[in-house]
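Lab meeting, item 3. Inverse folding demo.
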């Protein structure tokens, strides 16, 4: 078990490191898109990708608000120009993905790892 991590100042990741924030948005968008693609074929297995993103966010001491910011930005990006049915799929899969990543982030902060 790792020692407690110092608290990150309450500056949103979007403001603190915009370039890194965009990387997280792109990675989240990729996982979200894969989830939507797999939707018709059963339960998507995005756990490894979601854990990897959560670990990266944890290393930057991301907050739940940061996850929401990443989620909303990626959701907007993925939905632009998409047909209504696909937009709805992004919305539904995105809700689950955001909660999944928050859960992994809690585990990361509690245990110091995501194995």
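The presenter then showed the designed sequence:
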């Amino acid at each position: 078990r790792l020692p407690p991590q110092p608290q990150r100042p309450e500056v949103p990741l979007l403001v603190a490191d915009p370039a890194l924030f965009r990387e997280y948005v792109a990675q989240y968008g990729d996982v979200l898109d894969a989830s939507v693609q797999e939707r018709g074929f059963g339960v998507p297995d995005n756990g490894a990708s979601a854990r990897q993103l959560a670990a990266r966010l944890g290393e930057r001491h991301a907050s739940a608000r940061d996850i929401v910011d990443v989620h909303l930005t990626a959701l907007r990006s993925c939905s632009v120009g998409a047909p209504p049915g696909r937009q709805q799929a992004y919305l539904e899969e995105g809700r689950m993905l955001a909660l999944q990543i928050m859960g992994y982030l809690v585990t990361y902060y509690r245990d110091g790892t995501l194995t």
